[in-house]
Amino acid sequence: MNGVADGLAKSAAAPVMTGRSAGRAAGATDHVPAPSWPGKSHNQEIAALEPAIIEPLTDREMEVLEKLSAHYSTEEIAEAMFISVNTVRTHVRNILRKLSAPRRQQAVRVARRLQLIA
Length: 118
Hints:
The chain has helices at about 5-10, 20-25, 40-50, 60-70, 75-80, 85-100, 105-115. The chain has seven helices and no strands. It is mostly helical. It has a domain at about 60-115: Arc Repressor Mutant, subunit A.
């Protein structure tokens, strides 16, 4: 090769680095272990950090929660419980608030961890 192609080949080659600076240049970071509590598993640590239930769920909220755990849609819950879609949305909003969950499936996971549902 010669000319322009030869110049491109030379500029494309990366310099070789060795020693401690090689890992840092490649974006590697020093390993810092996550904090751990003696005698507790990772899931137990996470559960300990999550807030407990703020306020007890009503019977209707529990019924909606059971349906959420079965992956019912809002419309399916409304039809099964003979209530309006807006009422289901209100129940879901209350469940999310009471379980401190941002999403429906997170609320289901928290409820299972708290043994509110199977």
